[in-house]
Amino acid sequence: MSRLTLLTLQILVAVVVIGLWQVLTSVPIFGTVLLPPFFFSRPLDVALRIVKWFADGTIWVHLWITLTESVLAFVIGSLGGGLVGFWFARKPLIAAVFDPYVKMINALPRVVLAPIFALWLGLGIWSKVALGVTLVFFVVFFNVYQGVKEVSPTVLANGRMLGMSERQLMRHVYWPSALSWMFSSLHTSVGFAVVGAVVGEYLGSAAGLGYLIQQAEGVFDVAGVFAGMVVLAAFVIVIDMLVSMVERRLLVWRPMAHDAHG
Amino acid sequence: MQQAATGADAAASPCAVHLADLTIAFRLADRSTFTAVRDASLSVADGEFVAIVGPTGCGKSTLLNAAAGLLVPATGTVEIFGAPLVGLNRTAGYLFQADALFPWKTSLENVAIGLEVAGTPRQEARDEAAAWLRRVGLGSFGDRYPHMLSGGQRKRVGLAQVLIRHPKILLMDEPFGPLDAQTRQIMGNLLLELWSADRKGVMFVTHDLEEAIALADRVVIMSAGPAARIIGDWTIPLARPREVAEIKLDKAFHDLHREIWAMLRDEVMKGYVQTGGLG
Questions:
Q1: Considering B150, B166, B182, which residue would you say is the last residue of a domain?
Q2: Which of A108, A179, B29, B184 is deepest in the core (most CB within 10 A)?
Q3: Using an 8 Å Cβ cutoff, are B264 and B207 in contact?
Q4: Contact B165 A163 (CB under 8 A)
């Protein structure tokens, strides 16, 4: 299928869905409007709301807050997960001792931590960052751990035979291998950073996209909820594209620039 | 039939590699032990090219790993230039059967790394590496990553990576195993060319008897495993320089091949039965 046909079909899906939504919420069928606009809003209203947000500039501060929280959560979580993952992989005893606790914390739905973080860190950005960190940390941790563990024994033996010391093996063999695994989880961890930020905002904050959606919901402003969702989706897509660019740049040595969304 | 004296000339000048009564055993998952090699003795003189041939799974690589110091034998001694081997064999270069290049480094970086970790300044190491890449015919491939190279090209980079350190002993574990027949011959010629320019002791493991005779000064035959032993040791008096493809048409080559194959055939059949014909 050519690119153009594909794009046309993709746009067609959006047109059909939005068109149906508009029709079902505004045109009475057999005397009733199937989707009451009070609960479902209308695409046109949602679009107008988004335009208004950008026109009067109120959206920027929320976008900025959510972006800051996501980036902080991603950076802190990645650094922490990377270092601890590396450490555990090189020290099997420590990994074995902490194994049940790591599994336990990872099994915990992180949303329940949000109230704790709000209590500890207040309603500012740091409680959201903390929530994002708990999500990002484990994704990166498991990937780096795996990456160090699964270094090809042949490549490792080759490094040794070429005269590498333990420190040089770290730098030239273990670390690049771990990094490659970490980058392949980049999409997931960036996504989680945003999830942490938005959920945190939703549960209690004074700014951010999550706050915007929560506020709209509180006054039954369905158009506002949908508008917030659309902006959020666009925001995530832009970030994901940036990640893809970074990935292509950093993993040039990989057989193909595969998109590992897992 | 010529039986070369193993270790007899060791007294005169120390051998590059001297393996004496080596027994190598592995502990298996079910706590039983598997003896890969039993009472193997083998000497490789400095500058001598020794090929080790045996059926699949006979422990040829095990022997090589013992000489490299990657494996510690259960009993027996490993001596390198007269001194007992402790830890890794730092004087040896090892060419692996599987892909051993660092996938995150370009071919130039892969070749240079052996010098860089030894403390050679980066630029100097890179210049040297570029020279070695030219020597193996990959002068213009310095910025390629391993996945962009063919199997034969990767082996060339591997060869340069090992030789740039000027190892005194070259250990090769079926290095051309995964390549097609044509590429194997080309690589064989390249190896002989580089080796004859700077003769070192070579232990070359292969399951291909023709390749062994075409390349080596001596061909050592191992029995089928487990508890493989060395059962034959033949001097290959073919003149050098050799051309790997042409020498196979030589009458002397054929006679040697027939003679050695007669011994190897039985072992191959045994090995075939033991591994269920899967190898």
A1: B166
A2: B184
A3: no
A4: yes
